[in-house]
Amino acid sequence: MLWEGLKLMGVGMATVMLFLMLMIACIEWVKYLNRNFTALEQQAQKARRKSGNSPAKQQVISAVPVEVFAAAITAFEADSKTS
């Protein structure tokens, strides 16, 4: 009885190890396939950082005041109550 349990444990652990090794191999394969894209993405990020440091280019922030949202909600609720 004990011997069968140990055999089952060994087979189960071997199956798990094989599955994990297969998963690691697939991850490495995907990493190999994406190596060119990763290098291009890193270059693009460096270029964005360099251009972001220049004071000539500023981003325009468009924010809607809270009062506008409150008025829209009030109008929606008023329409819902009358319908």
In short:
With 83 residues, the protein is mostly helical.
Average pLDDT works out at 87
Using the CA coordinates, give the radius of gyration.
30 Å
Count of distinct strands: 0
The description of the largest β-sheet is:
none
Provide the β-strand percentage band.
Answer: under 5%
Distance linking N and C termini: 75 Å
Total helices: the number is: 3
**Secondary-structure-derived class:** mainly alpha
- Taken from the alpha-carbon principal axes, the silhouette is flat
Proportion in helices: over 70%
Order of helices and strands: HHH
Low-confidence stretches: none
What does this structure look like?
- The protein is mostly helical and 83 residues long.
- The protein is 82% helix and 0% strand.
- The chain contains 3 helices and no strands.
- The chain has helices at 2-33, 35-53, 66-82.
- The chain is flat, with a radius of gyration of 30 Å.
- The termini are far apart.
What attributes does this structure have?
mainly alpha, 83 residues
Q: What are the SSEs and their pairings?
A:
Layout: H1 2-33, H2 35-53, H3 66-82
